[in-house]
Each structure stands twice: as structure tokens, then as C-alpha cells.
Amino acid sequence: LFQFIYSVCLNKVCFPPAEWCYRKQNRDDSCKDPSRWAVQFPRCGGLRQSPINIITQKVQVERSLPLFDFFGHTETVNITVKNKGHSAHFILPQSVSLAGGGLSGHYRAAQFHFHWGGSGRPGSEHTIDGERFPMELHIVHIKEPYDSLAEAEHDTAGIALLAFLFEETADDHPHLDTIIAALGRVPNNGSSTVILDFRLRDIIPAARDLHSYYRYVGSMTTPGCEQAVAWTVFHTMLSISSQQLSAIVEQCRFWTGQPMRDLYRPTQPLDGRVVYSSKSATAQKRANHVWLGALSVLLCCCLKMLIKGLHKNFTVK
Ligand SMILES: [Zn+2]
Q: pLDDT tens digits for 163-175?
């Protein structure tokens, strides 16, 4: 009998792990919010944690950081969406993968998910110069030949995480409605659905258009906070309208039954790490200004020619 009780206890029936959460969600306060994650998941208290605040003045420009090679992004696939209790995961097939981007080896995609805020509140995990953005997309890739996070966690670059920040725009993102509708079909912890004919390229740009990004070494942003992640935060932002944002925050519930909102971990100390950038953010801004300048000169010239033409027509008559 003792042996039976002991084995049952080993299977954590006697000591169920206290669940973690983003905010104090239970009335009895039994779930662990981010300030207490490290109590149960010691790695969450480590020195290479994510997300971080990226200070653009302090990033080290590393022009040798090359473009990525994306595979399977234009393929049409059916993907499963699962409400995992803390967020919703969009499971990607292994035919979606990446190489390059200054990473050694080949990485197979596992899933993507989003972090968002509440109605009118931003909810990205990474912040840039202290600014939090409306939403953040994470695409999780596991290095070959590892098959799971458990296998990859002993390699400091066992996981490649691609992050895209969203900016609020007047127009809808043309392909986010499929995502929003799918979230509406997985309202509760454990529920799942399928998206037919999904293409990752519809959500994110082609690799050739993603030359500017930040790179640093960090961790998963949920427990167990495994410190095995090569992070890529792209400078290019994805668009989302305010209507789409408010639809997203309405769709799902956490495992506690509370509305799934504000699902982001607070930023973590850099602890001496360096954030690299494939291009300087200020150079990028300057380039945009040059383009805008050239465009306005061109428009001015066209306008002048048009006025001249009209004037000629009138004087001939
Ligand atoms: Zn994430």
C-alpha cells in the first residue's frame, strides 16, 4: 500500500503543481504570477531571461547578420489551433522551417502564438525604448535534430524564436480574420479547431524583405523559461486594425476561466547581454526619410509639369 501511495505521489497526484498565470487570476490567489514563477520554475530566475526592453541607442550593429531562408511559407497547409490555457497555439507542420539569419543549422517550425493586452491596452512582450506595442507574434522553431523543447533546452540556440511586433493601422490586416475566427472556435482551455488552406506567407513578409532585425540570446517567456533561445525581433511591424485587436481580446479564456487578456511577461533584466542589430534603427529611419524626400520632389515635379501643361492649353485657346 505504501509503495502504491508513493508511486501515486511521484506522479504528482499528491502534490499537484500550482499552475502559473500572468496576473493574479484566482479568487483564492493560488496561481503563480510572473513575480513568483521562479519559486516553482527556478530557470525563470536565471540571467538570460526574456522578454527584454530593447534600447535602440545601445544595440550593437552587426552588418554581417544575413537574411533568413524560409521554407514552406508559401505552402498551403491545414493547421490545428489549440487553446493551451495560457494562450492559443497554431501548430505548424515540420515542412515549415528556416536556416540562415546568422544561426547555424536548420530549424523546424513547431507552432506560433500571439501575446496581446486588453481592450485599449498594448500587450507585446518585447518593448522598444520602453514602448509596448499592441500585439506580438512568436514563431517557435526547434533546431534539428532535436524533436522537443526538452531535448533542445541544453543548447543555448536550441530554439529559434521569430518575433514580430504589431502596429495599429486604420485598415484591417487582410489575413488576420481567419486567425480571429479560429480563436473564436477555441474559447476554453483544451478546445481545438482546424484552419484549412493556411499560408504563413499571408501573415508575415518574405525572408528577402526582412533584412533588419534585433538578435539576442534569451529564454522562453513562459515557464519553465528554458534559456535556449536565439531571439530575432524584426524591425518590420505587422499591421492590425483596432477592430481586429478588440475582436482578438474577446475570443478566449485562460485555464482559470477568466478572459484571456494581458498575456505577456514583464521585461527582464539584460544582465550584461548585448543586443545586436543587423542594421542601425536610426539608419533605417534616415533611409525612410530619404525615400519620402525623393518621393515629394518627384510629386512636386509632376505637379509643376501638369500646371505648365494646363497653362499652355489655356493660352493656346
Ligand atoms: Zn510567446
A: 999 999 999 999 9
